[in-house]
Every structure is written in C-alpha cells, then in structure tokens.
Design a protein that fits this description.
The structure is a homohexamer. With about 140 residues, chain A is of the alpha+beta class. Chain A has four helices and five strands; from the N terminus they run βαβαβααββ. Strand 5 of chain A pairs antiparallel with strand 1 of chain B.
Chain lengths: ~140, ~140, ~140, ~140, ~140, ~140
C-alpha cells in the first residue's frame, strides 16, 4: 500500500472563457459572465499529490521543500498575477477553464516528477467549484 | 484519463434519528441525543462530483451553472429549511442519517445526469462528520 | 492595554422563527422559510471573548479549560441537539433569531464570569450569517 | 448595548494597480506584479456589518434577506466577473486597492442603509490580506 | 456500492525529524529546520475513514460516537500534548514524518476496527501539507 | 475614519507552560497537559493589523509586501520551527502562553512600525483558542 503526499499552493490570475471559432452571441450564451471581454479573475488554489513509497532513510515520500520549489518554479512563476489568456503560452489557443488549467498543471509537473510517482492535481477556482485530474 | 468536476452546495434542515420498529429505550440507547423527539438540526454541506471528459469546444466536463441549477431544483428546494423527517417524501420511512441522506441525493441526481458521467456525493453533517457515496 | 481571550464552541439545534402575536400570513411574509412550522436547523458556532489582564503568575487572562467547562455546562448542555423553541426555557416566548441567541448566551455566561472581565459573544448561524453582542 | 449583524458575500474580478501620474518604472517599482498591464484577479470576499438594536417584534437587527438583496443589487451586480478598472464607474480614476474597494463598497451601501445603523465593511483580497473600513 | 464514513480529530504535539544513522550535517542538510534538536510542533488534524455498508436497522456504517471514542482512547490519549519522539512508543526508532504518523495511526486503529471495513487515514501537518494512507 | 489593513502569517513551534517559582505539583495542577516537560507544539497563525489612512498616491495604508517582509524578518525567522522556551530570547523567563506570545509579537513589531499607525495582533494557538492584543 502506497502513501499519497499533498502540497497546497496558490496563484491569483485573470482569465476569460472564449471560443474564437464561435460568434460573440454563442460565446455569450455558453460562457455567460465568464466571457467578459475585459476579463475577470480568481484566487486559484491547487493541491499537488504524489503517490509513492516512503523512503526508509527519511520517512519521506518526497521532500516537500523540493516539491514546493518545483511548483513555484514551473507553475506559480508563470501563472501568479498573470492574465492566463494573454501572459502564458499555455492558453493562447486553449480555453482556460478549471478543467484545462488542472490538466496543464499536470502536464507541466509530470515532466519534473519521476514516473515512479503517480501524480494528481486538484484545482479550486472558487471555494465551491473545483476539478481533479486525473479523476481516478 | 478523465476529469472530476465538483460543485459544493448547502442546505439547513432539522432531523431526528429514530427506528419505529424499536422501543423508545432502544432508540435512545442507539441514537443518543440524535433521537430527541423535538428534532435538532444542521447546516449540511454537500459536494456533487461528475467524472467525464472535457468537451473539446468548451473545455467543460459539464456546465457548472446548469449543474448548480439541477442541484437547486431537485435537492435544495426540497431539503433547505425543512424538517427532513416530516417535510420530505424521502425520509418518511428511511432514517435521515448522513449515510442515507447522501445516498438519497445520489439517487435523485442520478436521474438527471447522463450515465456517461460517473456521479459521487460527499456530505458534511458537521465540519468533523462526513460521508461519501459511492466510496470508490 | 488589555488582552482579549477567545474560545470557539459549537452546538447543533433546530429552531423556528415565529411571532405568536401575528397571523400565519404575516409570519410567513416576515420570516419566510425560517417560519416552517416543522422547524429547520443549524450547526451554530459561537466565540466567547473575555477581555482582561493576564495574571502575572500564569500568563493567562482566564484558564481556557475552565472557560470551556463553563460554556459546556451552562450553554451547550442546554442547547446542543435540542429544539431551541421547545426544549429550552430561554425561547419559550423569545424568538430564537441569531441576535436573540447571542444575547441569551451573553446573559447566561455573564452570571458566571467575574465582572472584572468584559464579555462578548459572536455567533455564526451559517458561515455567511453572524451576529456579535455587544457590538462595541 | 447594540448588536452587530454581519453578512458575507463574494465577487470574482480582475484588476490592476496603477497610478497614471507616474512613470511605468515607478509603477512597476511600487506595485510590483500587481501592476501587470494585462491585469490579474481575485475571489474577493466581503463582510457587511450593521450595528443597531433588535426589533422587539422580529428579533432582527435587519432582515438578512433584504440585506443580501441590497448587496447583490448595488455591489455584486456591478463588480462580479468584471474588470474593476475598465468595467466599473468607481475605479476609472481611483486605484482598486483593497483599501479603496472597501471604502467604495461602504459609500455605495451607506446610501441604502438607514443612518440609525452603523455600517462597516471587511474585505478579503486573499485569505491572508484583508482590510476593514472604518477601522473603529 | 459502499459508503465511506469519516471523522476528523486533532492533536497538538512536538516532534523532530532526525536519522540517528546519519551525521549532524547530513541530518541538517536533509531535514533542514525540521531537524531542530529542541523540537518544534504542529496542530495535527486527521480524518479517519471507514468504508462499508450502512446497517439497515440504523442507517449507520459505523456509530460515530463509538468511532470517536476509539480514536480518542487509542490515538489522541497517546499523542495529544506530547513530544512524539520522546513520549510515545511509536517513534522511538521511527522518524515522525507525516507519512509515518499516518501509517502508525492506521496500524493502531486497524486493530480496533473489524476487517469488514476498509480503513483510510488522512493527516494534515499544516493546512498546506498532508498525507493519505493508503493512497488508493 | 481610518482603514485597518491586516496580514495573516504562520509559524510552527514547540512550547511548554511552566512557572519555575512553583512546585511541579502546582505546575501540573494549573497548566495540566500544557506542562509536559518534553514540550508539545502548535501551528500558530497570527494576524497583524495596522490602522491608518490610505496614501492618496498609492491607495495603500501600508505596502503589504513590506509588512510581510518585516514580519518574516522580525518574528517568523525567530519563532518558526523553534522551541519557544529554549530557542528564543523572549520566553526565557516569560511563560509562552498565547497571551504572552501575542504581546511579545506586538512589542517586536511596534519598534518597526511608525507610530502614526495603530497596531494590533490576533494570535490563534488552535482554531478554537485565540487572543488579541490590545483588546480595544
């Protein structure tokens, strides 16, 4: 039986939900107030979970200081106090929904975490709305 | 790999735990202060989770506004500011434990959510006591 | 300059807002869904604050274990898992609004706390609705 | 002794801190990452407090349903899912710092709340950063 | 489909991360400020989850009062207001990392919970750092 | 009317409540489990509040980045992952109760914050136990 280790981090960003293949009317109908052309924003909180075996010498699944540094260098530095649509390479053509943001964070961190660890991302857009990837 | 999308909602209700097949003594012994014949109550919080694939056009697993409307129309309207034992059809003969309330909410919403989505309910009776259905 | 010492406690109770001097129509109009004759309920949280000088020998304004015992004996034992309207002497003729519950808790505890301490009660009926007595 | 009644509400918005009388360098130096020209955003939470006497007929300082409606109509409708700098009349020439947002909300609501009530606004920009107006 | 029932509990304790097989330098390098020889401490929160079928007579997966008593008697009594390294039998030779504390709590409770229930422990060392055992 | 600006910070520390002028029996009787000679610990959270006038050029009462740096340099660096009794100069002869910790933090920060600002400290030892200095 393995152990899951989790670290919660935050970033504050602006975003807009919009599909450029659609008319303004359809965008407004589907995305409602999230389609505001001047953007709105959120305090995003996200939990990064690594599943593995504790090291017998340290008792650690992974060093939390190192995990926090990895998250800050590869995610927060690029997303915090940014406009997700305009200031990041990830959402130039991808709609920055909570679902897509969680999947992007997963893909970024997957490159920096040894594959012996299972990786999961839970993202809160608000206290009431959240997503988890992968779901299982 | 699929994405889990979650929405947190609330209702405030009175309830009483009681098994009519038992004597008053046995009810008191098993359910303790939760058996108070005049009822007590809780601020129930519950999280509805849908597991599926994000739509390529929207980036949504499911529209959260629509999900919230479904929950309000089919659950909250019937449970909020109600006596669960006396005012709802669901707990006339079913004991309104946290376990049973979560299963009832699951059964109600399952009828309104396409079967391509896996559905889960997590219910908090208090900040310290919660249940999840199904468990896996 | 004095120090404020606070202790948070909880009780879960049913209640109904109703003014017996009014018609059913007026009660329904003024109190809305809180007037449900079968009651509804809440997880009430309340914070008891004592303002005084730390004792030079202990560094305590007041012993928190003793404060918690006083609150449990005089408030929680009477309110937890009860119907505030039917099961307590305090709300037989007083409407159990958040305002009145906070004032009743203040009056109860004032009798057990030396007058050298200023006493304040903050009560949360829900996470979003709260009252404080006295306000200053 | 009066009673304080509080209601917590939320809005999600984009903003940018910027003083147009200053050079870009000075703005960047003073406001740091909050000066991002493409905006960033927050889940703002704010608590509106009214201080007054409970009405003897209702036990209410103020009807919370009415207070919530007033806040939604006069604050949230204008601020939620908006760019505070571009989409509101309030921050065309006023920097949307937490301090100024709290004072603007106070000024808006002061016009709709009878002067017999003292009014206070507490605003959380993040879980760790908050302001209160007036301070006493 | 089974139901998961969870109970959240707390203890406050001192601890130090240290591997006696290593030099002081290596301990300092690996465990950083957590290696402080005079100890530091945390408010640990942990959630005990039992997965099973609700009893048809009670609607309970497990009696929460009984579960809380089991946790208090077998875990909290031994860990609360203790130095985990010096005052408990469990961490004499085992490093009290969050991972190991969660696994120890699981092993303790596993002896007191019928094997028909699946058992899981989630432990929060801080609001941002947590572990879960078993992970699946 | 002035504005209150608040910043929440954290430190994790071990401590022991003990009065060396008293016998072991009296210490045990007064401080109970907090008197454990091997120490216990907490995740302390504290909120630093400055009351002043917003600067007309910035809209800031005080720069929160500067405030956070001041708190980190003068409080957190000395208290985090420390034994308050053994590792700090402040509690060599002063009992590290929540009351005294809050007053010590106030005295430290008062030297670094211009007297034109009123200063207040709120400290949480646990989620349920907190102190505020000064009380008014």
């Amino acid at each position: 039986m393995k152990v899951a280790l989790s670290r919660k981090e935050h970033f504050n960003a602006a975003h807009r939900l919009h599909n450029p293949a659609w008319s303004d009317e359809k965008n407004k109908e589907v995305f409602g107030k999230c389609n505001n052309p001047h953007y709105h924003g959120h305090n995003y909180a996200f939990i990064v979970t690594l599943i593995g075996d504790p090291d017998p010498d340290t008792g650690y699944v992974f060093d939390l200081k190192l995990l926090s540094d990895l998250i800050n260098e590869n995610v927060i530095k690029h997303f915090d106090h940014k406009n997700l649509n305009l200031d990041t390479v990830y959402f130039k053509t991808l709609n920055p929904t909570a679902e897509n943001i969680a999947m992007v964070i997963w893909r970024i961190l997957r490159q920096h975490i040894d594959n012996k660890y299972e990786l999961k991302i839970k993202l809160y857009e608000t206290e009431r709305n959240s997503v988890e990837y992968p779901a299982h």
